[in-house]
Amino acid sequence: MEYVPRERVRPLAAILSVVSLAVVFAAAGGRIPSSTVPTAPEWVLDLIPHVNVVISVTAIGTIAIGWRAIRRGDVDRHRKSMLSSFGLFVAFLTFYLYRLVATGGPQPFPGPDAVYQFVYLPVLAIHILLAVVCIPLVYYALLLAAAYPIEELPRTGHARLGRIAASLWLISFSLGIVVYLLLHGVY
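== DUF420 domain-containing protein ==
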């Protein structure tokens, strides 16, 4: 059953990507005033990074389960795992952007300047770059899966793009955990 018309997969993936990235960059750039989000107690804002690291670990697990499932030919488990991964990504991003807007910007790095320059910033930059690159790849892979019956998916770029997206997604989530540890564990 076709949920997305095939000829609309690319334009829809492009539109969703542009809108999503615009929201992310607007929030990160301080273009969204904190008055646009509901006020939360300080403890809720402080809890968000810890919730997000749990979401990240869980997403790594669901991506790995989905990858393993498709290698074993279990399409139904693959679909459920990857949709769960996407839902976790949306939850992570929602919490992250909410906190970013509510607090007025990113959390400052509490460690030494040398660690900031030579460890934290490179890890953060790669994490962000991969997350940005993943957004259109994930949308496209999901929309292909929604537009084609399972038996026709091998004739599309779904598998090839899915492997790339899943790999980058895993690395991005993993680096996000490293960022979390540097901000909340080590320093």
